[in-house]
């Protein structure tokens, strides 16, 4: 095999490698984000964090929606506790739910 044939084979190899790299770049740059959006849009989300309120550095309150149920959840470094559950909630805001839970806990403390 002479030098011109070797150069031609080497050039064809680099051209094939360049084509593969360009196709991989186009697929990852444009195809993958589209696929992720398409898959996310095709599945309905049944679990979603609607709102959260940091109480201090380690404690937070979350309003979590799961199907048609809203949960008020308190978290700390060592545990998670469900404070309130409401099935098929209306248009109550996060603050309104916190006020209801506060009133219920105050009434329970007054009775004790």
Provide mean pLDDT, rounded: 83
Main sheet?
4 strands, antiparallel
Number of strands: 4
Strand composition percent: 25-35%
Q: What distance separates the N and C termini?
A: 98 Å
Notable features of this structure?
112 residues; rod-shaped; alpha+beta
Q: Can you walk through the features of this model?
A:
With 112 residues, the protein is an alpha+beta fold. Strands 1-2-3-4 form a four-stranded antiparallel β-sheet, covered by helices on one side. The chain is 52% helix and 27% strand. The model has no long low-confidence stretch (mean pLDDT 83). The chain contains two helices and four strands.
Quick take:
By secondary structure, the protein is an alpha+beta fold. It is 52% helix and 27% strand.
Topology of this protein?
Layout: H1 3-42, E1 47-54, E2 60-66, E3 69-75, E4 80-87, H2 94-111
């Amino acid at each position: 095999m002479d030098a011109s044939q070797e150069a031609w084979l080497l050039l064809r190899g680099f051209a094939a490698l360049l084509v593969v790299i360009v196709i991989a770049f186009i697929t990852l740059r444009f195809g993958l984000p589209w696929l992720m959006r398409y898959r996310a849009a095709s599945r309905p989300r049944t679990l979603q964090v609607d709102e959260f309120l940091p109480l201090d550095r380690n404690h937070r309150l979350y309003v979590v929606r799961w199907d048609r149920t809203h949960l008020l959840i308190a978290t700390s470094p060592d545990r998670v506790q469900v404070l309130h559950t409401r099935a098929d909630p209306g248009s109550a805001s996060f603050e309104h739910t916190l006020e209801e839970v506060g009133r219920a806990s105050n009434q329970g403390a007054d009775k004790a």
